[in-house]
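Worked example 2:
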Amino acid sequence: MDRITFEPVASWWIIAVIMAVLAAALWIGPTFASLNRLQKRTLFWLRFSLIGLALLALLRPGIVSTIQQKQTAVLAVLLDFSRSMRLPHLATGPSRWDAMVQNIKQNSSRIENLREQNIDVRFYGFGNRLKPLDENGAVPDFPETPSDGESDLGTALYSAIDQVRDQRLLGVIMASDGVQNAADPEIELSQAAKLLEDTQTPLIAVPFGQAAQTGQFADIAVENMADQYTVWVKNDLTVTATVRARGFANQEIPVQLIVIDADGKEEVVDTVRRSFTKQSESVSVELNYTPKEAGQYRLLVRALPQAGEISPRNNELPGFLTVNEGGLRVLYVYGSLNWEVAYMIRSLSSYQDIQLDQLHMDRRDEGRWPLDRTHLFGDPQYDVFILHNVDSTSLFQRGTQEQNLRLLTEAVQNGKGLMMIGGYESFGPGLYHSTPLADVLPIEMEFSEKQEFDAPIREDLHISRELTPRVPDGARHFITQLGDPDENAAIWAELPPLVGANRFMGIKDTAGVLLESTDGEVLLAAARVGGRVLAFAADTTYLWWTHGFQDIHKRFWRQVILWLAFKDSQSGQNVRIDLPQRRFQPNSSIRFTAEANTQTNQQITDAQFSGNLVDPDGTRTAITVVSGSQSQIDRKLLEEPGIYTIEVAAQRNGEDLGAAAAEFVIFDNDKEQANPAADPDQLNRLAERTSDFGGRMIEPADLPGVLDDLSELAPKMKVDVPLKWQLGDTWYDALVFILIFASLITVEWWLRKKWGMV
């Protein structure tokens, strides 16, 4: 039944006033004395028609008619198209994707039946966004494999509901592994769940994949490994990582440390085996490596794949290793713990290119002396040996245990460095006169010099007063050069005096004096016997540190080690690249710092740098390098995954200071496939929010029954659908109205002009 409606543009009384004024104007009108009756009637009806049109425009009449249509409903089916669906569905068998596709295709007849009953089944795919799917018959046209980005369940649900707000939504079916990988989703899951509740939309969740808690789930992952390491040649490297295992209770898993050189050759350098006692457990592993050659390397920590693993993709984690040339390994052997030992260790350990290994010859072990330490004194990796207040009887006894010091002597004669530091059991007081070391030490010793344990200190062997060190005239040396040559003597004079020292009986003819006290006592003597040897009478240089001369203390002891290891002839300058991170996503912002330093780690502030970025294809692109400050690489150069290299060279006043290189990797950290565990619990929590309206989680095998149940909910009756027309609702109506109105005005004006009224 049709009915007429009005939507006036103003109140009725206003419209009545307007029409009264117009009617009065029409009634009064001009006299039209010169017009005949036909002309007058023509103008009257034209103006009357215009007033009528004005009344229509003010009242805006319309017609409402009613028709009957069959009721419709929408069923939204959301299918997970993210890359995590490539992972296995169960311990054995097809992938989650193949299982889901097969499940949908097996129900194609039921889907067709729903559509025949006026239920609009709409398929959507989702990963990092929701998209309608083209259909191939009753089901979507599936790609061979899913390739969408990080899955965003919340945004997919919200968008699907939002697209059918003006229609009856029968329900939402979501087939997914339930893993939410989007780091910054547009719509949070909680928002999507609230919209489901507000619209009373049931969610039917269909999970694919195994949860981590299931007894059949098995996975090993390597995690929490640093992305870069720096070590010097011969120094020990410890790589720490976490191995997480699920489904391998009471099993032992081998974990390897693999070093990959510039040619891509892999070498397994360490293997540890870790046992797991729980169904799901994480353990820390430490793997060790001592590099023998400088260079840039890649590291892999790899847990060997085990039978039953769902995906071995996360069984290894990469890192980078820079092995610097010039690394030194020092064995520091001391007999007592004192301040000098503590500050020596503190100074030398502050340099990354010096690995300081310690051996304490504790007097509490005196009953077991001499101890066998041939594995240390015979180790060719050591460049320098230091003996500090160590009684020779702890390592040497003629006829029974001679090998320790004999190996040490041979090492020194073959080019290794040796230093003996003063103490009550050093030099002659420690009976070194009767050991093989007597041949290589630069001082004279006598058998009568023995200092007995717990006996009064022999003043003929030890100096107990303060000693102010000085460099003898003409004895300029690398070790004792603590500053500019013109200022060196003043620096030594400024240092606090040493307290106590060994009294040397004499210096060998082949030795030289590098330091003496202002009283003429020899403090530091040096000799060359194949390798380099030092005898330092004092052991209180820690006073320099405690009185504010930390840098001098560190420089002195570093120069001692460098000289003993024949490293004093180096230029003393090197270029470094500080790249805080080595693993990046494409188009990341990468910043690094380049600096040139002296041998004593002093920055060269006036160095000029040039740099290149080498991409995975070997193409070099010039980059700007700022000395001592952060430099940044253009994001556009970092789009392709692979290994990149930053090359930096430095000059000062035209002189080359050195060069350095640092590698990093651009890779796609695919969260979708990094964790093989599905998350059906998350799907279940979402579905339970709509349980009052029929929402629930079902197994894939139960989907046919759900579709059959939904067909029973198909709308059976017809509903009255109102159809409404209102003047001016469409541009067509407005255009026709304006054309008629303009035409009448134009005709009325043309007639008046023709009849001489204007």
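The mean pLDDT is 88. The first strand starts at residue 3 and ends at 6.
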